[in-house]
Amino acid sequence: MFKNYVTSAIRSLKRHKLFTLLNVFGLATGIACSILIFLWVKDEQSYDKFNNQHAQVYRLTINVAGIKAAVTPLPVAEALKRQIPAVKNFARLVSLHSIVTVDNKKFDERNIFYADEAFLKIFNYPLSKGNRETALSRPDGIVITSATALKYFGTENPMGKIVHIDDDVEGNNYTVTGVLQNPPNNSHLQFDALLPIITFEKSSNYSYNDPAEWGNSIGYTYLQLDKNNTTPTATQAIEKQIDAIQTANDPSHTKSAFTLQPLTDIHLRSDLMLDVGGQGNIQSVNIFSLVALFIVLIACINFMNLSTALAGQRAKEVGLRKTLGAVRFQLIVQFMLESFLVTFISTFIGIVIAWLLLPFFNDLSGKILSINLFNADIISTCLGTAVLVGLISGSYPAFFLSSFKPVKVLKGLRIFGGQKTFLRNSLVIFQFAIAVILMVCTLVVNNQLSFIQNRDIGYNKENLLYLQMPQTGDLQNNYQALKAMLNQNPTVTNYTLIEHLPTYLTTGTTDVKWAGKDPRQQTVFPHIGADGNFLKTFGIHLLAGRGFNDDFKGDASNYVLNETAAKLMGFSAATAVGQNIVMNGRPGQVIGVVKDFNFKPVKQTIEPLILRYTKQGGFVVIRTSPAKIQHIISQLKAVFQDVYPNFPFSYGFVDQDLSRLYLSEQRMSKLFNVFSIISIIVSCLGLFGLATFATQKRLKEISVRRVLGASASGIVTMLTKDFVKPVAAALLIAFPVASWAMNKWLESYVYRINVGWWMFAVAGLAAVVIAFLTICYQSVKAALANPVDSLRSE
After folding, report:
1. What is the pTM (predicted TM-score) of this model?
2. pLDDT averaged over the chain?
């Protein structure tokens, strides 16, 4: 019996080749998209779960004066382990950007961390060489990754080799005591080397015993809790204990609140200052999960519509089968088997399509994903998707076709009721609404991305080239030599020495005092150290007073405010000039006020900023001519290496750094573009099916109209206008949903666009035009057909 079902199913699919191809193409495309999105979502949700103790590990975060940060004071961890029994262990990390010297070769390393000895016990990063228990116990030990070992020592055994870290004036030699396998891609921590945190105190003049350090948040703190204290109630109680310990030990009495963040929440649920890079977004995961579901639903709806479009051709087949003794259950099994056959073929083709498109998808998403057909999750997902799609897409046609009455069918009576037409139109409205929603979302995301990349941020970001300066040696004398050579270079229009780039500023202090300040007020003031050329080089507008002057020694104790800082202190731009303030115990006078400019991503509002004078900094920023940029870089490299022969030449562009801040938005925009196009293409198949059904049902009516003199254009108009209602209904549903969804998404941006009417107009017009072109194919074909072919039997 089953063999007969299969044979009949194959014959039926062969007999209707066009519809079979459309069904297979639509379903395969939808399944391929769902597989790719599933791989991406699975990867995003897998972060840090490779750690055996991930359910017990939490990161300590802090909220100071409304500023939430991922770093906390280092002395807190030791106090917590002593005073809170639920804290079993802790590991602290302090980031280090340093020049590393190995056998006279220098490397600019940005992913080094000082780490507690317990780090390798709390986190199970695989150690390929060395002893996990002792690798970080030696004060002069260093643990490196496999990639770092290959970079430093090639294929030689790195154990016992010497690595020099230029992290202080003299620098320190470290002996390789362990080699870790490279951190997995789904680890929120990515590092190249680990140093014992006990050496941090010596190399940075830091003192764990200094009470002031209780107010200095500089490191990441991870706590391993007892497995019986990981419930929300227990962690909230621990947070209150931590707050009490901090209050008792912080001499500054800064109001702060601590939060325990689960390790597995860090990648997707973090919106914190001073966090590690490469974070994801749970909102994006939810959005693309819905996109995958919608595309599969669109493909399923296509199957239903295309199957019911064939109902007229298969009605007599059903009538004859029932007349010859077939019961409805047998017909349902027959049609469901056809559905599952198409679905499993589509699933196989979808897997192949996904495999072929995976490199392209990896480029778009910035991931390194792979399809492992022997992975249980992949197998279960593909089989589950195939079965679910088969049930969804095949159930309606199976029950609909098997419900035909033999007498009505064989007599040629009407078999397509109004309810069936309503359901089909509803399905098309639903899938068309999804396509329009994705089109509107694509327009909003693209325009928001363009807005944040092109808006006026308060300074001219173009043609700003920066060089990283060495932090060791006789920096000032060498900088004077560098300045002399830059002054002689005609391609350099301006340059400035600054401590931090104003792209993503991470410095901040609450220790700022001024006349009339409310003693209960606690505000974090970011600050930048800069020289006298800073305002001119960046093109920052001065509202009142003046900027720093390199020739005026008194500016060493003076300050420049942005307008937000002046307003916070209760001054206007004019009245702020001449006021006395104290920052971190250093008194000085305000000599100028500048117009607000963005020094953090535009998701964050502009904060009160203080500029202080410095002659030492981490970067030289150079305003260059846009022409012959490579020639300018070559000249600067020669100059730099002449002044700093033992320091690697490293450069970047401010505008490119700003662009990288919005990498996740750029990727989201590209993915939306791709999936919206796919949804439109797949949706057109549904419209094609409905048009086919409509023209098939009215074929004799069209022939009679042609015989009576109706023009082809008139018939095309008659057929296409029937689709105005479904399209209009789809737009009426899609526009409010898209508006609500995009306004919710835009709420995370302080500076954002308005969702304008023209976006809906463009999406709606595009939808109508695409629908019209899709429908026209069947309408024109029916209008131009020979009436004799349809009326021959009448």
Report:
1. 0.82
2. 81
